[in-house]
Amino acid sequence: MYEPIRTKSVHTMADPGDFPHRSREEELDIQLAGHLAALLAVTDELRALAPDPALDAAAERLAAQVARLRGGLPPVRSAVAAAIHEPHLYALHQRAHALAGRALVVAASRADTGAAILAAQRMEAHAQATALVGA
Fold this sequence. Notes:
With 135 residues, the chain is mostly helical. It contains 4 helices and no strands. It has helices spanning 24-49, 53-69, 86-109, 113-134. Helix 1 (24-49) runs antiparallel to helix 2 (53-69) and helix 2 runs antiparallel to helix 4 (113-134). The protein is elongated.
């Protein structure tokens, strides 16, 4: 009368070998690399809009941290060509400050001193830049 069920029920527990597991440290590495890569993208955009040797140095340090966290794979870099206008710079510095804050939280959580120091320095630099551009 009824056809037998041929597949597993969606309510049964998955076999532990069915999907890859990552440790907490690996997950934090992935999160931190993502936040730093996003910060690098914003930094590259800022460098295109307002060239500054300090931003160049920060971008290189961010790229090195991302590569370290990704097992030596270099991050994808952005080549941005946009018009310069102050509100855009202000918004970019705000976004960079927020991203650096997120990176700082994850770096502190995984006890990565180098990444935490870099994130804190970038937060401070973008806070100062926001005050200058916004004034």
